[in-house]
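Preliminary data (for renewal application), iron/sulfur cluster complex.
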Amino acid sequence: MNLILQHSSLADLYEKVEAGTRITEADALRLLESKDLAALGALANLARRRRVGDRASYIVNRYLNYSNYCILSCQFCAFARKKRDTNGFELTVEEMVEKAREALRLGITELHIVGGLHPSLPFEYYTGLLRALKALDPRLQLKCFTAIEILHLAWLAGLTLPEVLQELKAAGLDALTGGGAEIFNHAVRQAIARGKESAVEYLDVHRTWHQMGGRSTCTMLYGHVESWLTGWTTCANCARSRTRRTAL
Ligand code: SF4
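Predicted structure:
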């Protein structure tokens, strides 16, 4: 154990982390509430080394929004616009392809594409967009859409969740983005994103995608109205219990 940890109140967690034992909720709360950044960093570094040693990697990607129009009005959202707003936008497939072409010239290997829940773009816009981008370079990784966008597209196309994911995959979708996970707690979601998908629905989208062999990320939005106890630890438990379907 290094000196930083030896003198830290988190020293007892060292053995658990070194052995790869899963920490408890109480441990997680202690870590979250700790102000001992040096010890937290040392523990995180230990956990990282255990998993991947000195291997590190990165990608160069471009983040693109096809539109900021959205039929929802999540309380925390500063991105969405209504059609009546003067600063809303939507890009054609050709405009998106041009942006991707520029980014490819700069050496990107991935596009990260999300938008709002557009009120009128047809489903064919999304599949056409994926096909056109893939045609630019088949090696280009297309990481697109949040879980709520996928649910919106399923509704738009009149397809089930597996069917819409299959259609998007066939058009070129490689991975889902993690947006929308926020905090997996009903009260918190009601406060920040009423009307958006529930935690169960979010996890269903990602679980279905993973069962099809897909990959995705998961984006936690924290530091707002959630408390560590009701929010983050529920979140962590929910994410690691992939089959959990209780009220969240
Ligand atoms: S669904 Fe997404 S874009 Fe629409 S209001 Fe909510 S956070 Fe904003």
